[in-house]
Amino acid sequence: MQISVAPPSPALDSRIAEILGLVRKAFVEKGFDGASMQDLARSAGMSVGNFYRYFPSKDAIVEALVAWDMDEIDQEFARILQAPDPMVVLRHVLAEHVMDDSCEDEGALWTEICAAAKRKPRIAEVSARMERAIVDRLVKVFQMATQSNDNVRQQVFVTEARMLVLLVKASKMQGGDDVDGDTELKHRVLRSIDDILNSVSKD
After folding, report:
1. 70 with 161: CB under 8 angstroms?
2. Per residue in 100-159, pLDDT tens?
3. Minimal CA–CA distance to 99: which of 174, 14, 2?
4. Which pTM was predicted?
5. For burial by CB atoms within 10 Å, which of 66, 103, 121, 142 has the most?
């Protein structure tokens, strides 16, 4: 079954974005299953009845979160593709995502979503669709940088793009109190990313 997220009307954009920002914390603190719709409504400062007008289920909230994140990702890729050297900017953007510790909730949220995806096919499809979309955008960057789109290289690009998604996602979801160990791990992730991008550039 194909899942699609219809964009809200422009008048609702800012309000929905505000609600999503508020409910993220409840998901992180209580978990996908632990956070009830009442908890989420309370975190958004709304009555349950009014909250249901925006989001009829937790699945719908996840779909909206993915749609908003994809909007930000699309803006990021637009900047990469417009750069004189897209691979240089891509390398910088990926490094920022790996090393940035200012958005710890992001990793915790995606840990919850990934766990829920194991049990809920609808969320699994939404999550998988987001990853496919990111892979497609990475492949487009690779094609532009190498001026190549033949079938053999296309398959290589898809594999390398999937590996990049896996590395960045895993680094964001990595938790723990070992700060020094986490930093070293992130540097190793960056070296792996550099190896992949260097391999793509050589192709």
Report:
1. no
2. 765 556 777 778 888 888 888 988 999 999 999 999 999 999 999 999 878 888 999 999
3. 174
4. 0.83
5. 142
